[in-house]
Design a protein that fits this description.
heterodimer; A: 446 residues; alpha/beta; Aspartate Aminotransferase, domain 1; Aspartate Aminotransferase, domain 2; seven-stranded mixed sheet; four-stranded antiparallel sheet; 36% helix; globular; B: alpha/beta; 16 helices; 10% strand
Chain lengths: 446, 507
């Protein structure tokens, strides 16, 4: 077996050094009734060629986004990732290392995490960020839990613009801790509706901008109202590229900003692995979940980095930890950091502007089709449309025509009643031909 | 003192400032067409200019390559971190995960366009269930601790269905458990009740029996345990907790020792997460991403979170994405979308490469390697449970070193100079000054001998009373010993613009 270096002679020598007759002797504590007397009922070992053939045959049964005119976002975004990003993250020293528990031989990981934390804080307009969460949805759930810890209150008000999977994840993870999650009905432009639900028991409101329908909102009045009632404002997001153009939540009074960083540096990969971004105010750092890289000095006084404030974490604090998170999204955060470094302010603002213009062009093309109604009043690169034909059915039909037109909202939220709503997204990867193709196919289907 | 050079570099090791000290807001490594300036944001354009520094591609490549060279990695040498299973990461798996048919798939594409991806998930689920002898698997958890949460929430849902969620609140957790276990139990609203260990490193069965009662929800047990031992009473513990009306959660972090030889389902396990990034070699990536699919017994299967994979009559696969659409009683959703697809591809490729025979052999070699290291080192270090064979990790402690003023941390730092990543230090907590060594099956005998020789020489140096050598270590690592206390007392978690001028002034 190509991955196992021991030869039979090695095994014999080693058993004899150990003083064991056979490897079975080493398993002496296993109850006899639980020892398998046969191999499990699965295929035997295969060479690289056979394994590759199998996976290629499975891959061939999928339709990659790049083979279609592709307008699907709703929480995962198809952006161009520069070739050097994937090359760099595949370097052995990044790919095949562990959590930087021995900082003296992990400065590469630690310095890049420090850069990541700084970039996330800068992008979101916040003071500090952690070294990543599992994904955007779990980051938002952790934000709710943290808000309850900070305010010692238990109710979370969720806007009707939060991605429904994020809502469900928050219900599951924060609900498990006894938090009361109040979800407002799905609304295209209703972030401010949370204000009317503020009360003395509210730990936080969760709003999203751009929201799941693409609507961008001024969150400042919501933050002011929340703060007046002693609650925090959690600003969720799914499209990090937006903050290259749109006012970031940190500038609008957010206390915690939590969302998805996939769209910078990471492929769609059918939903994972992605990278959760989590930023907050400096006064809350000891309440934060997740790992933090911090600056220090070595014995010679030279600058270096370590994991720090670990007394918040499970391996020290156990059942009193701020979160149970251990493994995070390390390599995906590195991809984010390298891509963000390649972009810089100049590249990111241009990329964001291009995304916005592509979406405007798609919206104009679709608005010209009889029966199509654009529902999102202000958007970045994503917007909702209503058509006379059911959303799920429409998207399925167009897919057979080589066009992935968007996300039928009913797939995300069957109870919303928005059976005829499709969320359409455009990025820099869409060409004018793609847009013409979408228009043609949509006209044909309606 | 580290010898000084004009550049601050030392041979191949290049000094490298922070991105924020070398990049600027005008520099970029991407070429994009000029935009037209359209604005339909309704007045919500960013007011403050972005301050993110950029680099051109050659500068960025050099920056990150230089930083990478300050990292140790499994591709460079033995990485014997106990409980972390740092094994070789086959590059075939990287290639496969990057096929357009997997990497360029959106999780919300129409199901007719992703049948191959769903088949892959179904195949992975089949392998995991077959290997563990359990009835269902939730693929979506994103890491081990997320899988623990999934399993414990399934237990809570099962208790709720029995009308006992309010009365059964206590979860028994051994003192040797990973910190994630008590943290997870607490995150589900359970009360953690610790059970101690016997002198020979097993769960104290008598104490465990005392703790059982009709308020017990579950036991969370790592098996093989963190002392590197197979819990000899595991079936008794399972039977007892079941008889008391509770469930058995098994932390699967150490599953590598028994895969293909023992099925957790045959031990009475009700739920167990599987760290695909440990057992099935998806790369750790400097701390993630992982994946923590959670296998469930028949008793817990009805409560598995969405999404569910279901096979339709026409043999095609579908996803049940909402609890209301399920025929069972899902407790909720663990995350957006369907889980760590990129990790699923890698893990399944690893499993299929090994096959049933290779996985069993891998487990046996992992156990053999650990025992060989234990055999070579136990005359030179104290092995608290060394009079019995271990599983896939060997546990030593620093009790024989301390008389000479050397502790586990010092030995670990001396290993850095010898070109090794150390073992896991000070864990499990039940052994003072613990050193937990997990070589894994992908180390050759030659590598193990080399490591053992170094460990023995270091033990001899400590015995000779040269504690100053250990306290000064590391001397040859990219940095000297770092001040973790300062980092925690004066937290500095990001670069700030005002530092640029302060630093320039100081220079």
């Amino acid at each position: 077996m190509r991955y196992l270096p021991l030869s039979d002679a090695d095994r014999r020598d080693m058993l004899s050094a150990i003083g064991a007759g056979s490897v079975d002797d080493l398993y002496f504590n296993v109850p006899k009734s639980a020892v398998l007397s046969r191999l499990v009922d699965l295929p035997r070992a295969q060479g690289e060629l056979d394994v590759e053939r199998f996976f290629k045959s499975l891959a061939a049964r999928n339709t990659p986004a790049g083979k279609t005119a592709f307008f699907l976002g709703a929480g995962a975004y198809r952006h161009h990732v520069p070739a050097s990003v994937d090359h760099l993250i595949q370097r052995s020293e990044f790919l095949t290392t562990y959590t930087p528990y021995q900082p003296e031989i992990a400065q590469g990981t630690l310095q890049t995490l420090f850069e990541f934390q700084t970039q996330v804080a800068m992008l979101t307009g916040m003071e500090v960020a952690n070294a990543s969460m599992w994904d955007g949805s779990t980051a938002v759930a952790e934000a709710a839990i943290m808000a309850a810890r900070v305010t010692k209150r238990k109710t979370i008000i969720v806007s009707g613009g939060l991605h429904p999977h994020y809502l469900d994840t928050t219900r599951t993870m924060a609900g498990a801790q006894g938090l009361h999650i109040v979800a407002l009905p799905a609304a295209i432009d209703g972030e401010a509706d949370v204000v009317a639900r503020l009360g003395d028991d509210v730990a936080a409101v969760i709003v999203q901008s751009p929201n799941v329908f693409g609507t961008v909102s001024d969150l400042s009045p919501i933050a002011r109202a929340a703060h007046a009632k002693g609650a925090l404002m959690i600003a969720a997001f799914t499209e990090a590229v937006a903050f290259g153009l749109v006012e970031p939540p940190g500038a609008m009074g957010a206390d915690i900003v939590a969302g998805e960083g996939q769209s910078i540096g990471n492929p769609l990969s059918f939903g994972g692995p992605y990278v959760g971004l989590f930023a907050t105010r400096e006064k809350f750092i000891r309440q934060m979940p997740g790992r933090l890289a911090g600056e220090t000095v070595d014995a010679d006084g030279a600058r270096g980095w370590v994991l720090t404030l670990s007394t918040r974490e499970q391996h020290i604090r156990r059942e009193k930890a701020t979160s149970n998170i251990c493994t995070n999204a390390g390599l995906c955060s590195l991809a984010f950091t390298i891509h963000m470094t390649l972009l810089g302010a100049a590249g990111l603002s241009r990329l964001a502007q291009i995304n916005h213009e592509k979406a405007c062009a798609v919206a104009d093309a679709l608005a010209a089709i009889p029966g199509v109604e654009i529902l999102t009043p202000r958007f970045f690169n994503e917007f909702a449309i209503r058509t006379p034909r059911g959303g799920a059915d429409l998207v399925d039909v167009l897919a057979q025509d080589g066009v992935i037109a968007g996300a039928p909202f009913v797939r995300l939220s069957p109870q919303s009643g928005m059976d005829d709503v499709v969320v359409v997204c455009a990025t820099e990867s869409n060409t004018d031909e793609d847009i013409a193709e979408l228009s043609r196919a949509l006209k044909g289907a309606l | 003192m580290t010898p000084h050079t004009v550049s601050g570099s030392r041979g191949l090791l290049q000094a490298e400032p922070l991105l924020f000290e070398i990049g600027d807001v005008h520099r970029t490594g991407v070429d994009l067409p000029a935009p037209k300036g359209v604005d339909r944001l309704g007045g919500l354009k960013r007011k403050a200019a972005l301050d993110l520094p950029g680099l051109t591609e050659p500068e960025a490549v050099r920056h990150y390559v230089r930083l990478s060279q300050k990292n140790y990695a499994i591709d460079l040498g033995l990485f014997p971190l106990g409980s972390c299973t740092m094994k070789h990461n086959p590059r075939l798996n990287e290639r496969l995960a990057r096929l357009d048919g997997f990497a360029d798939l959106h999780p919300l594409q129409p199901l007719s366009t992703v049948q191959g991806a769903l088949e892959l998930m179904a195949e992975l689920a089949h392998w995991l269930m077959e290997l563990t002898g359990l009835d269902a698997v939730a693929l979506s958890p994103k890491a081990g601790a997320h899988g623990e949460l999934c399993g414990m929430l399934a237990i809570r849902a099962a208790l709720e269905a029995r009308g006992e969620a309010e009365t059964r609140r206590r979860v028994i957790v051994p003192s040797s458990a990973h910190g994630t276990n008590p943290a997870t139990a607490a995150a589900c609203g359970f009360i953690v009740d610790e059970v101690g260990a016997t002198e020979d490193g097993h769960v104290d069965l008598e104490e465990f029996k005392q703790k059982l009662g009709d308020d017990v929800a579950a036991v969370m047990l790592t098996n093989p345990n963190t002392c590197g031992l197979f819990e000899r009473d595991v079936k008794t513990i399972a039977d007892l907790v079941h008889a008391a009306g509770g469930y058995f959660y098994c932390d699967g972090a150490n599953y590598n020792a028994i895969m293909g030889r023992v099925r957790p389902g045959d031990l009475g396990v009700d739920a167990m997460h599987i760290n695909l990034h440990k057992t099935f070699s998806t790369p750790h990536g400097g701390g993630g991403p992982g994946a923590g699919p959670t296998v469930l017994s028949q008793a817990l299967a009805p409560f598995a979170p969405v999404p569910h994979l279901v096979r339709r009559d026409d043999k095609s696969l579908a996803l049940i994405e909402h609890a209301d659409d399920a025929s069972s009683a899902p407790f909720g959703r663990m995350c957006a979308f369907h889980g760590q697809m990129g990790m699923f591809v890698r893990a399944l490729a690893h499993m299929m490469s090994h096959g049933a025979d290779g996985l069993k052999q891998a487990a046996e070699d992992a156990v053999l390697n650990a025992n060989y290291v234990l055999a070579r080192l136990k005359g030179h270090y104290n092995a608290p449970f060394g009079d019995q064979p271990c599983m896939h990790e060997a546990l030593l402690d620093d009790s024989t070193l301390r008389a000479n003023g050397v502790e586990t941390i010092d030995l670990a730092k001396a290993l850095l100079d010898e070109g090794y990543h150390p073992f896991t230090t000070y864990f499990p907590l039940v052994v003072h000054g613990a050193m937990l060594i997990e070589p894994t099956e992908t180390e050759s005998k030659r590598e193990l001998d080399r490591f053992a020789d170094v460990m023995i020489a270091l033990a001899e140096r400590a015995a000779a009373g040269d504690s100053a050598f250990f306290k000064a270590a590391p001397q040859h690592a990219p940095t000297r010993r770092l001040d973790e206390v300062k980092a925690a007392r004066q937290p500095k978690l990001r670069w700030k613009p005002e530092e640029a001028s302060a630093r320039a002034a100081a220079e």
